[in-house]
Amino acid sequence: MKTITRPKPYEEILQQLEFCNRVFIVGCGTCATVLQTGGIEQVLELKVKLQESGFLVTGWTVIPTACDEMTVASAGEHEGAIQGASGILTLSCALGAQRLSFYLDKPVLPGLDTLFIGLEEHPGYFMEACDQCGQCILGYTAGICPITACHKGLVNGPCGGTNKGKCEVDSERDCAFTLIYNRLKEQERLDLMKHYHPPRNAQVAPRPRIIILEQKEIEQWV
Questions:
Q1: How far apart are the C-alpha atoms of 81 and 59, rounded to whole Å?
Q2: Of 70 and 146, which is predicted with more confidence?
Q3: What is the pTM assigned to this prediction?
Q4: Under a CB-based contact definition with an 8 Å cutoff, are residues 59 and 82 in contact?
């Protein structure tokens, strides 16, 4: 499972950096490295590009996992260079950018756009796997999420446009409910195709989404 990102246009990065001329660059050693959007190579390429545009790059680092606690330790190793910068440019997912913002007193600016959480079906091919809707129906759909697998995000299907197992929006793509049907048939659970799912309730997981664990729940994971 990887967080899928893509580079922001360089012009947009320059717009974000209008207020500063000294930049520290942060990459991520996990998802962004795998996607080739924020690994060492991409960080160094951006470093050169910024220098050619007249910026002073005070330093750079690629944090092993930018969205977890390792951010603090890695930032501490580069405290001088970070303090010498007027802005932090991060080539990580939005989670990594927010994590950096929690710990640093400098503006943290994203150099990537975060697209979705992806499951790698085969090397280099990622598909959105979960919408994190708070109303999981995978038990009825043979482990295939129709919200992300269906172009229309239907929870009851197929729609009237499916044709020979293909989606009417993208004829090269398998209809999500054809995939669900075939898998349920293999599992001898086709009766679940008749199960009606009511419209999703947007209030199940209102934003901002927050969960607070009880102390006993925290202790069992420590």
A1: 6
A2: 146
A3: 0.82
A4: yes
Residue whose structure tokens are 């109303």: 135
What is the β-pairing status of strands 125-128 and 112-122? antiparallel
- What is the reported pLDDT for 220? 55
**Does residue 33 sit in the same domain as residue 89?**
yes
Q: What angle do CA 207, 210, 215 make, to 5 degrees?
A: 170
Q: Which among 98, 100, 94 is positioned nearest to 63, based on CA atoms?
A: 100
Map residue 192 onto helix, strand or coil. helix
Q: Percentage helix, strand, coil, to 5, in the chain?
A: 35, 20, 45
User: Which residue from 118, 110, 127 is spatially nearest to 4, judged by alpha carbons?
Assistant: 118
* Residues 29 and 79 both lie in one domain: yes
45 vs 64: CA distance, rounded Å: 19
Question: What sign does the dihedral 90-31-217-71 (CA atoms) show?
Answer: negative
Domain count of the fold of the chain:
2
